[in-house]
Amino acid sequence: MKVVVLGGGIAGLCMGIYLHQHDIDVSVNERQIFSAVGGHAFLMHHDGITVLNELATESNCPLPGKPVHTFILRDADGLIVNEKILEDWQCFKRTDLLACLNQLLPASRLRNNRVFSHFVYEADQVVAAAFSNGEVEYGDVFIGADGANSIVRQQLFGEVKFEPGKVKEVVGIIQHAELAAALQGKFTKFQQKDQGLSFGLIPTSATEMVWFMQYDPLLADIPEGINPRDSDQYHELLHELCLNLLKDFPATVQQVLKCNDFRTSYIWNTRDFDLLPSFHHQNVVLIGDAAHVALPFTSAGTTNAMLDAKTLSHCLLHYPNLSTAFSAYYQLRAESIKEHVNLGRALRDSFLSADASDVIPLISSALK
């Protein structure tokens, strides 16, 4: 059996590593060459950390991640609203995790510069994946791991109906040794009580911190039509937006904004879609954001992608045929995914209603 993975992000790499470790012929195909720059950071729960440890069992590769042991919720004046001890959570930079996973997968299994174009069929069965550079990869099983805007999903099921997340998020990374040292192991979140506005801060190293601003775009926003990729105007407006919305937040927040290079920050338009009725069609199956997208309030997206890879690889190895394996994979994952979609929407609604006490399950209940 040869497996062709379309997408070399976290889900695709985990899938490739699992299959390679079990002597399955696998090809992971990624649109670009990995570069350890840019990207953001995220929290990962015990379940995802367990998957990473399993993947790295036979490797000397140092594992990334910084333990996060405390969640502190403060109001916009800096006063503590609530404080919770966290069990087995870590903060990862996306680039650090990708670098680790790239080391765990032999280079011979990874093909870069391959932008998926379409499937090649014989007798109504997919036999190969074609790429925009003219290359073709033949296989027996095809796994779509090409993200939220998945072309594989579109070709299997058509366009999904994305639900607007109603909340936007600005993300940035700063270097600030003093602040990072003071907040090691702590996820600090400042929540405006009377409107949908918050600011979060998590150390990713001894000197580096990732920050985010979640906001209701009805409060203020950047005008539509401005290109975020190459526009100085965009980054100036983004800077002004953050300064304006967060002007009454504590000195810690102002410090972060002062140190941040807004040319490396961006706005994330959050969105999701309802659970698909299936994750597969014939010999093609979806994992990660290609299969399901939940709002960021659950902090579960990366963990879910890694669990997809673990579950699907187990099913492929232990069930007698593809149909049974794919059905079992869906049954094992669908209920949890549906819960996370619903939880994300509930937490979003609590955020927009500005009830700070309701925002705590962002961490404590995300993966129970």
Question: Which structural traits does this protein have?
Answer:
368 residues; alpha/beta; FAD/NAD(P)-binding domain; 10 helices; 29% strand; disordered C terminus
Can you offer a commentary on this structure?
With 368 residues, the chain is of the alpha/beta class. It has a domain at 2-40 and 94-162 and 273-353: FAD/NAD(P)-binding domain, CATH 3.50.50. The chain contains ten helices and 17 strands. Helix content is 33%, strand content 29%. The relative contact order is 0.17.
Query: Mind telling me the C-alpha Rg?
Result: 21 Å
| Biggest sheet record | 8 strands, mixed
- Which CATH C-level class of one domain is it? Alpha Beta
* Low-pLDDT windows of residues: 360-368
Count up the helices. Answer: 10
Share in helix:
25-40%
Number of strands: 17
Which structural class do you get from the secondary structure elements?
Answer: alpha/beta
